[in-house]
Amino acid sequence: MSMQTLENVAQQWQTSVVESIINMVNAEDGDFGAIAKLSQAVNDVSSINKMIEFLCNHPQCKRAFEERPRLGNVDLQLLHQLPENTLGYAYANHMIKNNLTPLQGNFGDSNYQFLAAHLTETHDIWHIVTGCDTNITGEIKLEAFYVAQLYASRFWLALLTKNLLKAVVFDIEVSSKYMDALTEGWLMAKQAKPLFGIQWNTLWETSLEEVRNSLTISN
Questions:
Q1: Beta strands in the chain (DSSP E)
Q2: Taxonomically, which superkingdom (predicted)?
Q3: What is the CB neighbour count within 10 angstroms for residue 134?
Q4: Segment 8-51, tens digit of pLDDT
Q5: Is the N or the C terminus of the chain less surrounded, counting Cβ atoms within 10 Å?
């Protein structure tokens, strides 16, 4: 492939990323179609490989890529019968209260497919463990947490960028609130142990406080 061709490919990729972010700015919050297009645009092979390499420096994360833990079928009604202080109850209550169903990851044979699927199906558990709400500031806080814990996480950084651009364009008054949420999520992630690769379904009956303490997460 010629140098000119490589430059053209890079330029096309950059244009696609910018267009996807602009589309996200114009879309309603929670537009999963726009989010999927953004993910496809920003997740290049090079940065994903760097992310996987970074994660594999931690034994828990490396083992996850080898064993590929699955969350399995989640019975929210059954989990909702657990004691109210448990992780399982907190997760089920969060899902039921927000009328959500557990996200299903598309698991395949590659490390990339596992990475994407594992993050997808455990996303709402990360909400619970970090204490990040599902409102816009809670999402920004969790996005910053992802950026700090996942090296070269272009997708989560793009989502943060989208939210900051929305503040610039539509409501500058929320900028301080957004920056506070970003800072809190970033600092929380820096002091916390990795959440990636945890076999969460073995912890349903464990108290949420105990889970957070074991991960050095203060909320």
A1: none
A2: Bacteria
A3: 14
A4: 656 776 777 777 778 777 777 777 777 777 777 777 788 889 99
A5: N
